[in-house]
Structure formats: C-alpha cells, structure tokens
Amino acid sequence: MYLTQKSIYAIQALIFIALNNSGEFVPIREISNKLNIPFHFLTKILQVLSKQQIIETCRGPSGGVRLRQDPNQISIEQIILSIDGDRLFSECILKLPDCGNSKPCPLHDLFAPIREELQKMLSNTMLALLVKMVRDNQVKLTSVTQVQDFFPGQKQTKKPDHS
Amino acid sequence: MYLTQKSIYAIQALIFIALNNSGEFVPIREISNKLNIPFHFLTKILQVLSKQQIIETCRGPSGGVRLRQDPNQISIEQIILSIDGDRLFSECILKLPDCGNSKPCPLHDLFAPIREELQKMLSNTMLALLVKMVRDNQVKLTSVTQVQDFFPGQKQTKKPDHS
DNA sequence: TCGATTTCGGAGTCTTTTATCTTATTTGGC
DNA sequence: GCCAAATAAGATAAAAGACTCCGAAATCGA
C-alpha cells in the first residue's frame, strides 16, 4: 500500500547485507535464499542501489555485494527514493496531475502534514538502527526467520533456490 | 501509492453526488462524463457503495444514484474501508504476514503512530467538508474542471463518453 | 589459459489492477 | 404491452507491477 515490493526487498536486503558487514562481499544468491527474495528480481534491485552508490558489487567467485556507505549514513528515505522515486512523498493522493498548493485536491492540505511527518521519520531513520534492532532480536526481517538463521550455524537445510 | 484507483474514484464520485444532493438520482453516466471516470468501472464501484448502504440506486428512466446517508455522517475513512478494506491502516509496511506487536518488522513501531494519525484524520474528515471546499472553489475535483462546469450552465460541449 | 562462479542486462512471462464490452434486468411513460 | 433509459453482472482486454530466463561479461583459482 505504501511501498512497492521493490522497495521492501531493497530495505530487507540492505539490512541483511549490513548484518554481514565484515568487508566481504555477500553473494546475491545468499541474500535471495535467506530472505526468500526472487533471485533475478533482487539482482535488478541491487543494480539500481549500486548505480546509486549505496552498495558496490564484484563479479566472479567470492563476488557479491557490500555496502559502499556507512549504515549510519544510509537513511530509509534514501533507499525508497532510489527505488521508487519520490512518489510516496509528492504524488497527489487523488492522482490529480497538477495538484499543488495553489489549487489543490480536496485532501491535499489534510494529507500534507502527515506525509511530511512520514518523510521526516524515514529520513531520520538510518539503516544502522534497523540492523541493531534485528541483531538484538527485537524485530524480525522475514516471516519465519530468526537472526541466528542468518549466520553460518551448521547444517543448512538447502532450500531450492528462487531463481 | 496510498489509495487504489477504486478508492480515488469512489471519493470523487461521492463528492460529486453530494454536490447534486437535491434528493434526485444522479445518473452514473453523468458522473462518469463530468469526472472522467470510466463508466463501467465506476458502475462496479458504486455497486459496492450501494451494498455498504452509503448510496442507493434506482434503475430505469430518471434513475441513478444518491446518498443514503447524511454527508456529515460519511467519513473518508469509511469510503476507503468500503472499497479497499483496512489494508491502508493495518497491513504490515514490509508485508510480513504475521507482523504484530509481539514480534514486529523493523519499521512497525516507527510507522504505527503515523498511520494512526492518518486514520484519525480520515475518520474525522467528513464528506460534507470536502463538498464544501469544492463548492467554495477552494479545491478542484479533477485536473481541469471548475465547479461551475458541474452544473447545467449552458452549452455543454458534449464529450465522447468513457464507456 | 580454462573452467567455474558470479554479476550484468535485455527480453520475455505471469499476475493483479484497471478498463472495456456485451447481455441481462428493472423502471417509467406512452 | 411496448419502448426507451437506466443499473446489474459476467466475460474479456489492456496496462502495470512482479517475476523469470538466457546469453554475455567479469573474476578468481587451478
């Protein structure tokens, strides 16, 4: 309703990448498997984040992706803007093409403060905070997974990959 | 981004119907023409609003639709709920199926107050208020139309209908 | 250098939402 | 009773969003 599936995947993936932020590249396939995100779809999302300088990629064996910026510097707003553009923050609620302050739609003025607050919240929320919450097990990143499952415990039940 | 096209059309149509709230039935074709809403699509939306007791319909010559409730009693929230259900107010931002207060998603707690405020605003905003704003020409209902155009002024340039 | 592994990028498919078409059914007036 | 005007409802089509496939390019290790 608020975010596209792309943005959702982008946020989840970046949290996962930041969790493994040891300087090594995380293979996209691993992200896809652990978070249950369709592999090829994720690939394209990460390509966008790469062009936006949020992550960097490396091909070949032991390649993958890693953060290019400090997770304390990456806001959730920035992620959403990279993937969805600014529709969430600026498009008219009733989709009137020229809705603005001079001749707004009936909901414009009522909505404006709320979406402003939303944008403020998202621009003040840094990736690092969400990562901390996941790491402390206060929140979950997927419907079934616990943090422990993200890290090389032992016998990884090999799931069929989502290619 | 926030509302589906159906909800948007529903809100616009109800404002238009309330503008013509003289006790007579407003033909759906007229709403469709004046607001540039696809006729058959609008028909189905209004059928839902009819089942929800928000409007009543009448077939046959000089038939159409009219409000069943006082526009002061119809909230925008109610319209959205009728058409889209409560997804806007309750569905997890990251679409985690079991995101709740016990084990939420990373954005749950940050989003909660904002969407609560959104719901409060929409439940406090009554159709009558939006109607007044349109009537007073403070806001516009479609991208091009002025209030005067809604009422039988004179030579109506007959547009091709959107069937 | 070769082969395996991984991302890149273009094209194509599937699914959901939005919109259209067609055939009833109801209603009112003559 | 019949015709015209309107909504009701089901089937179909188009557009957008979500997802897949495949060949190419880069990289690493043997």
Tell me the helix content of chain A.
Answer: 40-55%
Order of helices and strands of chain A: HHHEEHHHHH
Q: What is CATH's topology name of chain A?
A: Arc Repressor Mutant, subunit A
DSSP strand tally of chain A: 2
Full CATH superfamily name of chain A:
Winged helix-like DNA-binding domain superfamily/Winged helix DNA-binding domain
Query: Under the CATH scheme, which architecture of chain A would be assigned?
Result: Orthogonal Bundle
- The gross shape of chain A turns out to be elongated
Q: For the record, what CATH class of chain A applies?
A: Mainly Alpha
- The span between the termini of chain A is 26 Å
C-alpha Rg of chain A, in Å? 18 Å
Mean pLDDT of chain A: 90
Task: Write up what this structure looks like.
The structure is a homodimer of 163-residue chains. Chain A has 163 residues and is mainly alpha-helical. Chain A has a single domain, classed as Arc Repressor Mutant, subunit A (Orthogonal Bundle), CATH 1.10.10. Helices cover 48% and strands 5% of the residues of chain A. The first copy, chain A, is built from eight helices and two strands. Chain A has a two-stranded antiparallel ribbon. In chain A, strand 1 and strand 2 form a beta hairpin. In chain A, helix 1 crosses helix 3 and helix 1 packs across helix 4. The longest helix of chain A has 17 residues. Chain A is elongated and about 55 Å long. About 4% of the residues of chain A have low confidence. At the A-B interface, helix 1, helix 6 and helix 7 of A face helix 1, helix 6 and helix 7 of B. Chain A binds a DNA duplex (30 and 30 nucleotides) through helix 3.
